[in-house]
Amino acid sequence: MNTTCFHSLLFVLCMYMHVSVNGQSSYRFEPGTGTYSEFSDGKRISFALMDTLNGFYRVRELEGEPYKWYNTLFKIDSIKTIHIQPYGNLRFDNDSSLIIVDGAFMFLDSIDQTSSISYKIIGNKEDRLLKVQWKNLRARSGKPGNFVNLQIWVYQRSGVFEVHYGPSSATNQSGFDQSNGPQIGIFYSLDDFTKCFEKLWVYGKPHEIKLDTLANYSFRAMLGVPGEGVVFRFVPKFKGLAVHTLETGNDHMMTYPNPVTGDMLYINRPGNYRIYDSNGKTILQAEATDMIDVSALSEGIYSLLSDEGIMARFIVQR
After folding, report:
1. Has residue 118 got a pLDDT over 60?
2. Of 45, 58, 112, 188, which has fewest CB within 10 angstroms of its CB?
3. What is the pTM of this model?
4. Burial track 6-34 (b if 16+ CB lie within 10 A, e otherwise)
5. How many angstroms separate the CA atoms of 141 and 102, rounded?
């Protein structure tokens, strides 16, 4: 085994040894290493193109395509949207809920003409890979002369999120605290941030990482930027789009509204269905219908299973 491979293996083992889990999540965290590959053939986003009110850029090329996150089907359209933000993060909106993927979530400023935010889309329909790159930016809360590079990858077929860290200044390896350091992780929430459904958050020192999976809005920062070649993977525990997506032409099984605030859950095709709670217990059954009375259900996340074996997740909010 050569020295590089040994150091990479040692790094991964050290990270796993210091991970602590304190809750449940639809995703598991897999730290690792790889070669950071900067790309120059993506679509470059001017900071001026970022929405001046919300601070984001909307990716429109993927409209009409299905994605599956938190075991919930997202068909990208004018409401279910993908946004790139200048803080080193992505935002996915779904009616009244959202998903955030944070690779840094800190104020990142342009340094010079080489600084940029760009993205590229690779692959065919239902097997896309979205890569977003934040290149040569300065962490505003860091020391003078600092710089960071990172990418977030979103796999359509598997639903995996990856954060790849590139070259960064030595001053960024430490010196931050839990309030001003890089914020890293994923969470699923109402879009008004009044209820967090799930969270998988990474904090601590870059070589002594810990996990927080409590469903709340307490976000502890990393004490340093992960080093070049570090890859953080957020892998679904549920089956991906390739297994659970049922097509009839361009249609998919979907539920609405989501979250459900009234009595009825509507489905875009009639069939026989079962509803399971978060413990996997069957709590409702319905036959030959495209609507189910869920007025007896308490707040929470539920799974809807069709006779064809297709599953979708929905939220009840009272």
Report:
1. yes
2. 112
3. 0.71
4. eebeebbeebeeeeeeeeebbbebebebe
5. 17
